[in-house]
Amino acid sequence: MRRESKWFQNGSVNITVKNIPESVYRVMKREAKKKRRSLNAEIILALETEAVEAERRRQLSSLRKELDRFAASLPPLDESVPLIRGDRER
């Protein structure tokens, strides 16, 4: 019986980042030390934060488009004075 090997992955992905500017490296290293984290943990946190913000921006953009479509579907507003007077007369 032939047995196929299966790769086990714990949900983590390894990446290599090259050509990091020295100034960025120093800031990340300093922040990691200040927060008592490894440089790897600090970089993961920065990536997670940016991913959350990018998703938020995407959702806001989508919501904005939906609101624009809704606003375009509304009838044009006329002069508000007759509406206000009509409301006061009720």
Essential attributes:
90 residues, 64% helix, elongated
Provide a concise account of the structure shown.
By secondary structure, the protein is mainly alpha-helical. It has three helices and no strands.
Give unreliable regions as ranges. Answer: none
What sort of overall outline do the alpha carbons produce when their principal axes are compared? elongated
Task: Provide the succession of SSEs.
Answer: HHH
The first-to-last residue Cα distance is: 86 Å
Q: Could you tell me the number of beta strands?
A: 0
Please give the largest β-sheet. none
Strand content: under 5%
Structural class: mainly alpha
Query: Helix coverage percent of residues?
Result: 55-70%
Mean pLDDT: 88
Number of helices: 3
Rg result: 27 Å
Structure description:
There is one protein chain. The protein is mainly alpha-helical and 90 residues long. It has a domain at 22-73. It has helices at 22-34, 39-73, 80-89. Helix 1 (22-34) crosses helix 2. The protein is elongated, with a radius of gyration of 27 Å.
How do the helices and strands line up, and which of them pair or pack?
Elements: H1 22-34, H2 39-73, H3 80-89
Helix pairs in contact: 1-2
